[in-house]
Specification:
Strand content: 15-25%
Structural class: alpha/beta
Radius of gyration: 18 Å
Number of domains: 1
CATH class: Alpha Beta
Oligomer: single chain
Distance between the termini: 26 Å
CATH topology: Rossmann fold
Order of helices and strands: EEEHEHEHEHHHHHHEHEHHH
Strand order of the largest sheet: 1-2-4-3-5-6
Helix content: 40-55%
Number of strands: 8
CATH superfamily: Alpha/Beta hydrolase fold, catalytic domain
């Protein structure tokens, strides 16, 4: 089980939960919006045998408190939360792995403190304006809905959605809409629906808009550490053609793992492929010795 049993205080006063397990070079895992550490469950057991693994929850997620200020949900602010976690854990430098919106956060971490990043591994996520590449035209509709819906109404709607998401037909419906991959188990998806029910809606809404406002496009050509990009051709949130390939072209010397059947739930569905590619990447760049 992955447990975030420590905490740091963010710049805005919010308590942010994190955990640290394993031994070896540091490996920091950053979740996506509306997710928590359970998305790493299939890769975590292998990784803690080779690395000191740091996990954490965004504000308003998992064991962390809701954000205390609007400024606490921006991508630079979340990257600063990660810096504070590294400081508290006594970690000077780490391999940064991000899933979904976590990709934007680890890119901002590299912008803010590149000397503490030994490698970047963005998995199934964007480098800018998340709604512009997610869900086709529906992404733009969702952006406007989140922006224009009053907070009390959004919060009530999100809580209702969290309850509805627990119904038996939710996973089959999600598969039919390609929001959930065909190989994601119902047990794994139940972890997501349970977590979604406990999240803080105002924090999630503000964070989603902050992710839409953010861009690391200017940073990509300046990245000088080994970078492995994982992208799924069937990922409706961050499709390879719109996200993975452009990121790969812009980051000098980057590597691209393209999953032909990859969806946004590929951490549940394709952990073997991702784990093997990551292990080869680490060995190829000598990261077990260099970190």
């Amino acid at each position: 089980m992955i447990i975030n049993d420590r905490s740091v205080v963010a710049a805005d006063g919010t308590h942010v939960a994190y955990g640290i397990r394993g031994s070896g070079p540091p490996l920091a895992l950053t979740n996506g919006l509306s997710t928590s550490v359970f998305f790493w469950k299939h890769l975590y057991p292998e990784w803690i045998r080779r690395f000191t693994v740091i996990t954490w929850d965004f504000k308003g997620h998992g064991a962390s408190e809701p954000a205390r200020t609007p400024g606490g949900v921006t991508m630079p602010a979340l990257a600063d939360d990660l810096r504070r976690i590294l400081d508290d854990a006594g970690v000077d430098r780490a391999i940064m792995v991000g899933f979904s919106m976590g990709c934007q956060v680890i890119l901002e971490a590299y912008r803010a403190y590149p000397e503490r990043v030994s490698a970047l591994v963005p998995i199934l996520g964007p480098f800018e304006r998340v709604f512009d590449t997610a869900l086709g035209p529906l992404g733009r509709v969702l952006k406007h809905l989140v922006r224009r819906t009053p907070t009390p109404i959004f919060s009530a709607s999100a809580r209702t959605f969290g309850q509805v998401a627990r119904l038996p037909l939710t996973v089959p419906l999600g598969r039919s809409l390609r929001l959930i991959g065909p190989e994601a188990s119902e047990a794994d998806m139940r972890l997501f629906t349970e977590h979604l029910r406990r999240g803080d809606p105002p924090t999630l809404a503000a964070m989603a808009l902050a992710a839409q406002a953010h861009s690391a496009a200017d940073l990509l050509p300046q990245i000088e550490v080994p970078t492995l990009i994982v992208a799924g051709d069937a990922d409706v949130f961050a499709p390879t053609r719109l996200v993975g390939e452009p990121m790969h072209r812009r980051i000098p010397g980057s590597e691209l793992l393209r999953l032909p059947r990859g969806t946004h739930t590929s951490l549940f569905e394709h952990p073997r492929e991702i784990g093997e590619a990551f292990a080869a990447f680490v060995d190829r760049h000598g990261l077990l010795e260099a970190v």
